[in-house]
């Protein structure tokens, strides 16, 4: 399982070059979203590796971060800021910390930067935006690298959902 985790992390960020084709795509989409005055949630299962890597490149969107290392009061402040502040366009979230019990209706775009084996985990994360008070159509995008273990996971998830 450790090897699979490492392979999945390499799909997110090339450890040799520190580059990420997923990040390039995400930046392009977030610029469009920001221009439309919309907001986005970006989920990853790797807060220490992926969220920390993404945060500096997403500063232009006044990005906030929500993960399990935050205290309850810090988490509450992050959610309040994201919901109330117009200029905070992106919320980076750990799937485990942000998967249940939150209402984030200001976001109408959801990006899964990496994939869980269980499709219900992704669905629960997406449900943060599908709440009473959501006024817009919600768009969900799962990022995966073609020809890698991620493509296999994506195909497995598709079969599980059918």
From TrEMBL:
Entry GO CC: nucleus
PROSITE patterns attached to this UniProt entry: HELICASE_CTER
Annotated ranges, domain Helicase C-terminal: 22-162
One GO biological process term: DNA repair
Swiss-Prot/TrEMBL keywords: ATP-binding, Hydrolase, Nucleotide-binding
Gene Ontology terms, MF aspect: ATP binding; ATP-dependent activity, acting on DNA; hydrolase activity
Keyword Hydrolase in annotation: yes
A Pfam match: Helicase_C
Natural source organism: marine sediment metagenome
Record-given protein name: Helicase C-terminal domain-containing protein
């Amino acid at each position: 399982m450790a090897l699979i985790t490492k392979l999945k992390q390499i799909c997110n960020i090339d450890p040799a070059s520190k580059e990420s084709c997923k990040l390039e795509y995400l930046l392009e989409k977030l610029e469009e979203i920001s221009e439309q005055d919309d907001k986005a949630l970006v989920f990853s299962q790797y807060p220490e590796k992926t969220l920390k890597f993404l945060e500096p490149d997403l500063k232009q969107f006044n990005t906030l971060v929500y993960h399990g290392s935050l205290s309850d009061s810090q988490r509450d402040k992050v959610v309040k800021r994201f919901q109330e502040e117009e200029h905070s366009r992106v919320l980076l979230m750990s799937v485990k910390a942000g998967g249940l019990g939150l209402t984030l209706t200001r976001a109408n775009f959801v990006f899964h930067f990496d994939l869980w084996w269980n499709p219900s985990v992704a669905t629960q994360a997406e449900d943060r935006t599908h709440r009473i008070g959501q006024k817009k159509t919600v768009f969900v995008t799962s990022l995966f690298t073609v020809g890698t273990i991620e493509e296999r996971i994506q195909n497995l998830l598709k079969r599980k959902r059918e």
